[in-house]
Hints:
Layout: H1 3-15, H2 27-34, E1 39-42, E2 47-51, E3 55-60, E4 69-75, H3 80-83, H4 90-96, H5 105-114, E5 120-122, E6 132-136, E7 143-147, E8 164-170, H6 172-179
Antiparallel strand pairs: 1-2, 2-3, 3-4, 4-8, 5-6, 6-7, 7-8
Amino acid sequence: MTPYSLAFYVDVVTTGTVLGVRPSDSPEQVTEVLGADFAENRFGDRSLHRDYGLAEFFWDRASAGEPWSGHHLTLQVHRLAHGGSRLVNEAVRARYGRFAPRLRFAKLRRLLERRGVPLVEVPETPANAPFYRRFRQPGSGVEVSVIGTYGEFSTPDSLRVGDVYSLQATAARSIAACTTTSAPPPPAAPSAAVPRSSLPPGP
């Protein structure tokens, strides 16, 4: 892992943003920073998802006449084991350089702790435990999903125990709703949509 890509993950966990883009930002604000090379999925008039290969952004709204409201963003780190740096958005690559195919959680956690940014383990949903473990940064609210143990058909064959599966930052309006449940949501599943300039995502 290069120092540059590690710096990217440290920045995301610390700030809850991607190049300063927040999960609460509008589709137009995200496009202004990350560009227009994305795949888009709409689920009716109330849900919008844009896939930038590594980063995904999600919005919702109460009705078709209202503006989109940011819900969360997810970094699908596990995809890099198949697609490599070409899956990373061009603006992110320009800032941070190339990305290794895997991110070791122990290394990420060590770098964060040196900067006074702790990760606290939180309960995983029963459906995902013990194959996945979940850690949260209290300040930013970012959650890190980690392979806890290997499970056939439960964890990707391309990842090892201790590899990061994904990172997720939730818009402030949704954090309170998340904390009312006994466990956080499961790791975000890979999307079938792929940016035009990217390789197909892994399973």
